Amino acid sequence: MAQITANQERELRDAFNLFDTDHSGKISKLELKKVLQALNIKASDDELQKLLQKMDTDNSGEIDYNEFKKVMSESFFKKYSKQDLEAAFKKFDADNNGFITTHELSHILSRMGRHISQNDVNAMIKSLDSSGDGKISLDEFCKLFD
User: Known InterPro entries for this protein (predicted)?
Assistant: First the structure.
Protein backbone atom coordinates (compact mmCIF):
# COMPACT_ATOMS: atom_id res chain seq x y z
CA MET A 1 0.00 0.00 0.00
CA ALA A 2 1.19 3.48 -0.82
CA GLN A 3 2.35 5.62 2.11
CA ILE A 4 -0.21 8.28 2.89
CA THR A 5 -0.10 11.30 5.14
CA ALA A 6 -2.29 11.83 8.19
CA ASN A 7 -4.25 14.42 6.19
CA GLN A 8 -4.82 11.93 3.36
CA GLU A 9 -5.91 9.32 5.92
CA ARG A 10 -8.54 11.79 7.23
CA GLU A 11 -9.68 12.52 3.67
CA LEU A 12 -10.07 8.80 2.97
CA ARG A 13 -11.98 8.27 6.22
CA ASP A 14 -14.29 11.19 5.37
CA ALA A 15 -14.87 9.82 1.86
CA PHE A 16 -15.54 6.34 3.24
CA ASN A 17 -18.04 7.77 5.73
CA LEU A 18 -19.82 9.65 2.94
CA PHE A 19 -20.19 6.44 0.94
CA ASP A 20 -21.20 4.36 3.98
CA THR A 21 -24.66 5.92 4.16
CA ASP A 22 -26.06 3.42 6.67
CA HIS A 23 -23.00 3.83 8.97
CA SER A 24 -22.43 0.07 9.07
CA GLY A 25 -18.66 0.40 8.71
CA LYS A 26 -18.86 -1.21 5.27
CA ILE A 27 -19.81 -0.05 1.78
CA SER A 28 -22.42 -2.32 0.25
CA LYS A 29 -23.06 -2.87 -3.45
CA LEU A 30 -26.13 -0.63 -3.20
CA GLU A 31 -24.14 2.16 -1.53
CA LEU A 32 -21.43 1.87 -4.19
CA LYS A 33 -24.12 2.07 -6.88
CA LYS A 34 -25.57 5.24 -5.29
CA VAL A 35 -22.15 6.90 -5.28
CA LEU A 36 -21.59 6.11 -8.96
CA GLN A 37 -25.10 7.33 -9.83
CA ALA A 38 -24.57 10.54 -7.86
CA LEU A 39 -21.47 11.18 -9.96
CA ASN A 40 -23.41 10.38 -13.16
CA ILE A 41 -21.24 7.32 -13.77
CA LYS A 42 -23.28 4.69 -15.51
CA ALA A 43 -22.33 1.15 -14.57
CA SER A 44 -24.19 -2.03 -15.39
CA ASP A 45 -24.86 -4.54 -12.62
CA ASP A 46 -22.03 -6.66 -14.05
CA GLU A 47 -19.59 -3.71 -14.00
CA LEU A 48 -20.70 -2.83 -10.48
CA GLN A 49 -20.16 -6.41 -9.33
CA LYS A 50 -16.67 -6.47 -10.87
CA LEU A 51 -15.75 -3.20 -9.16
CA LEU A 52 -17.02 -4.53 -5.83
CA GLN A 53 -15.09 -7.78 -6.26
CA LYS A 54 -11.89 -5.88 -7.12
CA MET A 55 -12.10 -3.90 -3.90
CA ASP A 56 -13.54 -6.66 -1.68
CA THR A 57 -10.37 -8.67 -1.03
CA ASP A 58 -11.84 -10.70 1.84
CA ASN A 59 -14.88 -11.74 -0.28
CA SER A 60 -17.37 -10.56 2.34
CA GLY A 61 -19.60 -8.93 -0.28
CA GLU A 62 -18.91 -5.47 1.12
CA ILE A 63 -15.98 -3.06 1.23
CA ASP A 64 -14.55 -2.34 4.67
CA TYR A 65 -12.41 0.70 5.40
CA ASN A 66 -9.06 -1.09 5.00
CA GLU A 67 -10.09 -2.46 1.59
CA PHE A 68 -11.29 1.01 0.56
CA LYS A 69 -8.09 2.60 1.85
CA LYS A 70 -5.87 0.14 -0.04
CA VAL A 71 -7.57 0.76 -3.39
CA MET A 72 -7.98 4.49 -2.92
CA SER A 73 -4.48 5.17 -1.63
CA GLU A 74 -3.04 3.42 -4.68
CA SER A 75 -5.16 5.42 -7.12
CA PHE A 76 -6.64 8.50 -5.45
CA PHE A 77 -3.36 10.02 -4.33
CA LYS A 78 -1.53 9.50 -7.59
CA LYS A 79 -0.87 12.59 -9.67
CA TYR A 80 -3.77 13.24 -12.00
CA SER A 81 -3.47 15.04 -15.29
CA LYS A 82 -5.17 18.38 -15.74
CA GLN A 83 -7.59 16.62 -18.12
CA ASP A 84 -8.50 14.02 -15.46
CA LEU A 85 -9.17 16.75 -12.91
CA GLU A 86 -11.23 18.81 -15.36
CA ALA A 87 -13.39 15.75 -16.13
CA ALA A 88 -13.95 15.11 -12.40
CA PHE A 89 -14.73 18.79 -11.80
CA LYS A 90 -17.38 18.74 -14.54
CA LYS A 91 -19.22 15.95 -12.69
CA PHE A 92 -19.84 18.44 -9.86
CA ASP A 93 -20.29 21.60 -11.97
CA ALA A 94 -23.82 20.81 -13.14
CA ASP A 95 -24.52 24.16 -14.81
CA ASN A 96 -21.10 24.28 -16.51
CA ASN A 97 -20.35 27.78 -15.24
CA GLY A 98 -16.83 26.90 -14.09
CA PHE A 99 -17.64 26.75 -10.38
CA ILE A 100 -18.98 24.28 -7.84
CA THR A 101 -21.56 26.07 -5.74
CA THR A 102 -23.06 25.10 -2.41
CA HIS A 103 -26.24 24.14 -4.28
CA GLU A 104 -24.34 21.83 -6.65
CA LEU A 105 -22.40 20.23 -3.80
CA SER A 106 -25.61 19.76 -1.78
CA HIS A 107 -27.30 18.22 -4.80
CA ILE A 108 -24.58 15.66 -5.49
CA LEU A 109 -24.32 14.74 -1.80
CA SER A 110 -28.08 14.23 -1.58
CA ARG A 111 -27.94 12.04 -4.71
CA MET A 112 -25.42 9.94 -2.76
CA GLY A 113 -27.96 9.64 0.04
CA ARG A 114 -26.16 12.14 2.28
CA HIS A 115 -28.40 14.91 3.54
CA ILE A 116 -25.95 17.35 5.05
CA SER A 117 -27.00 20.60 6.68
CA GLN A 118 -26.53 23.81 4.75
CA ASN A 119 -24.06 24.96 7.41
CA ASP A 120 -21.91 21.86 6.85
CA VAL A 121 -22.03 22.27 3.06
CA ASN A 122 -21.05 25.93 3.48
CA ALA A 123 -18.13 24.83 5.68
CA MET A 124 -16.98 22.33 3.01
CA ILE A 125 -17.04 25.04 0.36
CA LYS A 126 -15.31 27.55 2.65
CA SER A 127 -12.50 25.11 3.42
CA LEU A 128 -11.62 24.91 -0.29
CA ASP A 129 -12.53 28.45 -1.35
CA SER A 130 -9.22 30.30 -1.24
CA SER A 131 -10.60 33.28 -3.21
CA GLY A 132 -13.44 33.89 -0.76
CA ASP A 133 -16.13 34.09 -3.47
CA GLY A 134 -18.30 31.35 -1.93
CA LYS A 135 -17.72 28.76 -4.65
CA ILE A 136 -15.02 26.37 -5.80
CA SER A 137 -13.15 27.09 -9.03
CA LEU A 138 -11.31 24.46 -11.05
CA ASP A 139 -7.99 25.72 -9.65
CA GLU A 140 -9.28 25.43 -6.07
CA PHE A 141 -10.61 21.93 -6.84
CA CYS A 142 -7.24 20.91 -8.31
CA LYS A 143 -5.46 21.93 -5.09
CA LEU A 144 -7.19 18.98 -3.41
CA PHE A 145 -4.95 16.71 -5.49
CA ASP A 146 -1.61 18.47 -5.06
Answer: CALM/Myosin/TropC-like, EF-hand-dom_pair, EF_Hand_1_Ca_BS, EF_hand_dom
